[in-house]
Here is the input.
Amino acid sequence: MGALTKIAIAAVGDLLMKRKMIASAARNKGFAPIFAKVKPYLRNADLTIGNLETTFSGSSFRAEPGKLLFSAPDAFAAELRNLGFGVLGTANNHCMDGKVSGLKRTLDVLDRYGLRHTGTNRSAREARRQLIVNVKGIKIGILAYTKGTNGIRVPKPWLVNRINRTKMIEDVRRLKKRTDFRIVYLHFGKEFRTYPDRGQIRLMQLLFKNGVNVVLGAHPHVLHPIRMFKAKDVDGRVRNRVAASSLGNFVSTENPRHTARLRGTLLRLTVTKKANGVTDVSKISKVPTRILQNIGRKKEYRVVPER
Here is the structure.
């Protein structure tokens, strides 16, 4: 049967905002120039998503000596909205960097700028809600989970969605009843490893079997291979699945010799809903990106496409 609706989803990996880049943005007309070259690619999609690997913990945030803790100015959230981001995954190993108050304030800031989010929660009631985005009549469910929080205690389990197979399958099955298409963002794997390990592959296979269409990954900070393949779920339906276990760093500051950490991929998914209601990924494409550091006398930063 013919296509009823076709949409484009753009997805990127880690959105890290470290102190050097924050200081540079303060000196050099804010965050907008950093992303000027990739903005058209982000905005030229019906839905743009990424992994927010920082917090908006506010003026009370203090970075403890010897600890890698992140918080960005609220202006970065405003810029993400300006760039076209519609949804951010917030479950990652830095989501508790500002403790409970920072986690909650981060979600308040995202709400203020109209950025929808999934992965962390301000209450048990909020944790029970599932994010469903309606894009041109296609209902897309998005979930996010993290392996850990860098050892920072999470006082209430509902604050952060942790990787727990039983709970994740429960969530996916509940979401499946209400959506046409499912995306799961996972913060997992080993840092700087360029391919998924056996445990990651098994987890992705489990999610695909239970009805997830796309798995996006973050945390390794380097690129993994991206695969699209056909697989059958528990209902016997064969669909295209997309496994992207690490999209790399979209924005970060890194040691210049670590060139792999300065590269990412903007993944573009074409999703088609046919007249019979069947919704699937019909095409994927990739825009390689690179982070340029310490440009000129003002020590500026830029994220650029490598096409």
